[in-house]
Amino acid sequence: MSDTEFAGLMDFSRNAGDDTLYRMSADWMQGRTVYGGLVAAMALTAMGGHVPEGRKIRSLLISFVGPVTADPFQIRTRPLRSGKSVTTTEAMVIQNGNICFTALGSFGGDRQSAVQAAPESRPAMADPSEGIELPYIEGMTPAFTRHFAYRWGIGALPFSGKGGQEIGGWISFRQGTDCLTEAWLVALADAWPTPALSSLQEPAAASTMTWALQFVHLNRNTCAENEWWGYHCRVDSAEKGYVHERSRVWAPDGNLALFCQQTTALFA
Fold first, then answer.
1. What are phi and psi of 49, to 5 degrees?
2. Residue ranges per structural domain of the chain
3. CA–CA distance, 223 with 4 (Å, rounded to integer)
4. Does the predicted model carry a pTM greater than 0.85?
5. What rounded mean pLDDT belongs to the chain?
6. Helices (H), the chain
7. pLDDT band, residue 181 (cuts 50/70/90)
8. Sequence-ordered strand ranges (E) for 143-255
9. Residue 222 confidence (pLDDT) above 70
10. Measured between alpha carbons, how far is 176 from 226 in angstroms, rounded to an integer?
């Protein structure tokens, strides 16, 4: 599946019913599971059918209950409540009779407010043209990474044994995209490895357990063709096989677009 079909997959999710079967190609796999950022993007898109026009995604709370394997699966959604300003919607991925993924989305319309705080600025890092390119290497890097272009800018590379606290750099889709919606942004945001892997000297598995995403809609135009989006992630703690980290994604114009908190199981 090429990136130019990503929009088609989002369209499929937007129009699918609860009993529609999703079948994913091997190039979107992450080990034994479908790439989590893609599953989250499809779930977010599917939720949109329950959301009144004009309400934007503000918060997305995700639990990766179990691996979503290469078998067919369903995305089932339902509205939980729709008030004057906010609609809350639930999505679940069902595969072989089991719940593999759950998400709660909070969608809110813009409101007048006397309170406004400036979002966090993008950290200083080398221009993408000067960053270290992370190539896709068959059999070594996760299959889904072939769809993204990376330029490393902050921290040590995975399995270098020289880092573990933070990473950062630039990311974009490899093939033609002319408009990045919030679903595309979710797919971008999950494509980086945990910084904890940089403290190791040999490969090890890591699996996201929970992911909380908060969206910033302040003065940001998400439509641009294949521009670089900034990324930074910092580990808050790592102990007893679990990593707690927070990350940020900045739009090409430098405005904060998304910030996240994530809990990852590390098998090392």
1. -65, -15
2. 3-110+123-267
3. 15
4. yes
5. 92
6. 6-15, 36-47, 182-189
7. confident
8. 148-154, 166-173, 205-215, 229-239, 242-250
9. no
10. 7
